[in-house]
Amino acid sequence: MASRRPPARGRRGRGPARRDDATWLVYGLLALLALLAFSAAATVLRWLAANWWIPVAAALVAGGVALAVLRNRALAAREHRLRAARLRLALSGPGGIDHMTPDAFEFAVRDLLERDGCRARKVGRANDQSVDVLAEDPTGRRWAVQCKHKRDPVGGKPVGVGVLYALAGTYQRAHRAQVAVVVTNGRFSREAHRWGNEQGIHLVDRTALARWAADGRPLWNVLPRVPAPRDGRRN
To answer: 148-172, pLDDT tens digit by residue?
Structure first.
């Protein structure tokens, strides 16, 4: 029976030696990289010292561009405010509210609220929880507005009380609003008027919308019994 050869003892000592060699190699590479980085930094600093005017000029140009951008934004915002303050919308006629799409009607209501000095945004979309426009007026009141555009505003079906039920269930809980409004270029049913008066849901029908949109009066001056502002100031 052949006997096994004993393992060579000389091989056992090579592992740690190789690891030590690899460690020193890594240290050497790190030292070389650090030296190269230091040399590059020194070169950059010497170049900056000799050409200091280049970064100064670049900073001045960047500052000028930033100031120009801010100035243009301020001018655009001012023009938007002036244009909003002049906004007047008619109900009928070319380009009037009656000829708008429902989506355009929501944007028009938002623009009218901005004209009144509110911060307003259109939120109407799928699953909008019965609110199309949210706004905060200059006194801090938060408004939740549901818009109902009618293609046949005079002879068509009136806005029913179900719209008010949906808004009443969400404007405080979901949107933290103090004032709930339904705006239409048509009319409301008798039940909607009765229930809105009882529950404090404000209704803007065709007549009130004409005063608000065409006369330039703020919405809170068109509506009766609007809740008092948060800060106690009068409208």
So the answer is: 999 999 889 999 999 999 999 999 9
Structure tokens at 219: 């919405």
CA distances from 61 to 45, 58, 70, 105 (A): 22, 5, 14, 44
Strands, sheet with 179-184, edge to edge from the N-terminal-most edge strand: 119-122, 133-136, 142-148, 179-184, 201-204
The string of pLDDT tens digits covering residues 113-149 is 999 999 999 997 766 678 999 999 999 999 999 999 9
Q: Which of 106, 143, 168 is nearest to 218 (CA)?
A: 143
b (16+ CB within 10 A) / e for 56-72? eeeeeeeeeeeeeeeee
- Long-range contacts of range 227-234, CB-CB < 8 Å, 24 or more positions apart? 227/141, 227/178, 227/179, 227/200, 229/137, 229/139, 229/140, 229/141, 230/139, 230/140, 230/141, 230/178, 231/139, 231/140, 233/139
In contact, 140 and 117? CB cutoff 8 Å: no
pTM of the model: 0.64
